[in-house]
Amino acid sequence: MKLFENLRSIFSSKEKSFQIIETSLNELPELNFKDIQKRKVDGLIVRNFISPENCDLLVKNLKKKNQNYGSPKHPIFPSSFAQIDRYSEDFNAEMESCFIKSSAFIDTFPVDYGSDLLQEISTLFGRLNPGCEQNTPLGCNNKGCYIPGTFRIQYPEKVNINLHCGNQFIHLFPKYYEHLSSTVDVMDQLSYFIMLQEPDEGGRLILYDVSWNEAQDCDTITNSIITLDGKTIPLDATNAIKSSKLEIRTGDLLVFSGGQIWHAVEQVKGNTERVTFGGFIAFGKGENSSEFNLWS
Ligand SMILES: O=C(O)CCC(=O)C(=O)O
Asked: How far apart are the CA of 278 and the centre of ligand 1, in A?
């Protein structure tokens, strides 16, 4: 089967061999999001999904459009749900305003960013999942909608994407997920991103050989996993947990089982910031739902 011809296992001495399929737009495997969610494979890389010129244009327009681009405090554009203060008295109003802005972001994306990236993502995801409907869920009171993806920026030695796991978000952002889970089956969500600008050094996605069913908490200060039986395992200081660092290059798209696999992004070094565009994917409610949803 084509899928297994393209299968690449990534490993070295201390490395876990995750099953990541590498492919291109011309030879997409028979592999869909349910296969990744069920861990038939751990992920899929579509090499050269968009051209280097398109990536440059997106990053150039992102800088032009967002005055906060250079600030390490604003690594996500447009700002994501995670940045809404969950204790704010105006939380619901802030969520509503976020959904209205998201809808405008989608509508004006091609003009603002000079690229049809959202359409290209949707076309690829449709090809991988024939016959499945795809959505960005509606916002609160059916006003506005979720955003299918956000730009994420990691400045050299300033901003980290710490250890996390998608299923953890359900507990970390309960109010947000309460709304989303009324229409979406958020457990075991997938993550996707496109590398728009590779850093000079570092910035690789690290997948740890620990799943949500083994550990549901972590300590980002000590970079430790806390297992369900109460053990704290420091990831840097031990060989007990294997890992894999993925080489995602400019223009590549990765979809992986980010809801279940604990992961982080290495610190970026050198002079070039790492820029990605990505979000999360989950199916609709009900065992047999074939509709999938994107948000970020
Ligand atoms: O955009 C990125 O590089 C971060 C990906 C990630 O950590 C996630 O989707 O959970």
From this structure: 7
pLDDT for residue 137: 95
* Domains of the chain from N-terminus onward: 7-284 (2.60.120.620)
Question: What is d(CA 196, CA 115) in angstroms, rounded to the nearest whole number?
Answer: 12
DSSP string, 82-112: GGS-TT-TTHHHHHHHHHHHHHHHHHHHHHH
pLDDT in tens, 253-291: 999 999 999 999 999 999 999 999 999 999 999 888 889
Which atom of ligand 1 lies closest to the CA of 280? 9
44, β-bridge pairs: 21, 255
Structure tokens at 138: 């509606």
The sign of the torsion formed by the CA atoms of 281, 283, 285, 287 equals negative
pLDDT at position 9 is 39
In this structure, which residue's CA is closest to atom 5 in ligand 1?
193
Q: What pairing do the DSSP bridges indicate for beta strands 268-269 and 201-202?
A: antiparallel
244 lines ligand 1 (CB under 6 A): no
The predicted structure's pLDDT at residue 288:
84
- In this structure, the residue with its CA closest to atom 3 of ligand 1 is 276
Which of 165, 193, 268, 294 should be mutated for ligand 1, with most atoms under 8 A from CB?
Answer: 193
Q: How far is the CA of 193 from the centre of ligand 1 (A)?
A: 7
Q: How far apart are alpha carbons 168 and 172 in whole angstroms? A: 6
- Digit-coded pLDDT (tens) for 205-250: 999 999 999 999 999 999 999 999 999 999 887 677 899 999 999 9
**pLDDT band, residue 5 (cuts 50/70/90):** very low
Taking the CA of residue 193 as reference, the ligand 1 atom at the shortest distance is: 1
Alpha-carbon dihedral sign for residues 21, 25, 29, 35: positive
